[in-house]
Amino acid sequence: MADQARRAAETATGRKGAPEIDVSSVAEGVTHGHARQGAKTVFDLESLTVSYAGKPAVKDVSMGIHENEITALIGPSGCGKSTLIRCLNRMNDLIPSASVEGKCLYHGHDLYGPSVDPVEVRKRIGMVFQKPNPFPKSIFDNVAFGPRVLGLPDVKERVERALRSAALWDEVKDRLDENAYGMSGGQQQRLCIARCIAVDPDVILMDEPCSALDPISTGRIEDLMLELKEQYSIVIVTHNMQQAARVSNRTAFLIVQLDSEEDNRWGQLVEYDETDKIFTNPSDRRTEDYVTGKVG
User: How far apart are CA 75 and CA 153, in angstroms?
Assistant: First the structure.
């Protein structure tokens, strides 16, 4: 049994010699991760529920997301990961049938308060999507778009700084006037990251940023995330558990719940803790079953 648990842990984390999963203590409730000493809370979610046309898509989520960390959201398809991450910069506002209940606090301020400007929210909390979505413009104009719209100074310097931060400057510095569509998929995704950070956000949200990329490009994005967390707080949605184990400090696991008649389904947070603990010694058997591949 011990050998089996140890092999499962190594499979989930991609690391040899990972501690075995302790299956002796299983909790029924949700485990919430504790911040490292001195860590500041960026987001504090309290009983957050998101519904579409009155039907919950994700229900009663409570968790804290901390500064200068990478927080991963994992779980099966349909468990509400993307819905949850879109709450963090009010992208769900763009869906007419969407409604949000509970609290979503950003540095102690209610993101959904009546006096909060959603545009200002999205300036401070940027987003990178699953599929690279460069504008049909030059490489330079893609990165300069946000600073120009917001009237920020020193656009040229901002573009260079953003491209350097996205580990892209050396590859494109001699062709900034070329159309961004001529870049590879991995380069386009790093361009989208550069476009995001050109306006000096506080948080970067990434919704499966590597799902459409090859392994080499995925590795570059992961290396970039580890560098960027020194300056930004990052939240990532991923179906790749090895990726979550490699790059994140903290992981939240969500599942799909069904009502008694199996007519309605919604996402529920099962466990949220430090990534090493989630993958090697989870508190909930449902988490263990998912990260070891017993269910998926």
Answer: 42
The token duo for 165 is: 């931060």
Q: What is the dihedral of CA 38, 248, 222, 149, to 10 degrees?
A: -60
Q: What are phi and psi of 99, to 5 degrees?
A: -140, 150
Tens of pLDDT, residues 26-53: 333 344 444 455 579 999 999 999 999 9
Domains of the chain listed by start with CATH number: 2-291 (3.40.50.300)
Predicted TM-score (pTM) of the model is 0.84
Q: Count of CB atoms within 10 A of residue 127's CB?
A: 20
Q: Which residues, other chains included, contact 87 with Cβ-Cβ below 8 Å and sequence gap of 6+?
A: 45, 48, 50, 100, 104, 111
